[in-house]
Amino acid sequence: MSDNDEKRICKRCLLRDFNPNAYKETIEEYINRIRTSERTPDELYRERLDACMNCDKLNQGTCNACGCYVELRAASVIARCPKKKW
After folding, report:
1. Cα end-to-end distance, the chain, whole Å
2. What is the C-alpha separation between 7 and 43, in angstroms, rounded?
3. How much is the pTM?
4. What confidence tens digit (pLDDT) does each residue in 21-65 have?
5. Is residue 64 a contact partner of residue 58, using CB atoms and an 8 Å limit?
């Protein structure tokens, strides 16, 4: 196992093996690792997720326009919506 594999926190899985609780924990862990200076303020984060919730490209936490996990993308100050909704 390489150093990069050991640092990876998002694991690949099949839908049949998908565990919603583990997914939530992984997302929260990743967001908590983002430096405060690089993390979206809470209010802006919620606004971004609201826009995603109203988008037809949202599919079980994933953006069908780009393939990202919307909660992760929304948490980064430098990230942009591929559909320019935020």
Report:
1. 38
2. 29
3. 0.75
4. 788 888 899 999 999 999 999 999 999 999 999 999 999 889 999
5. yes
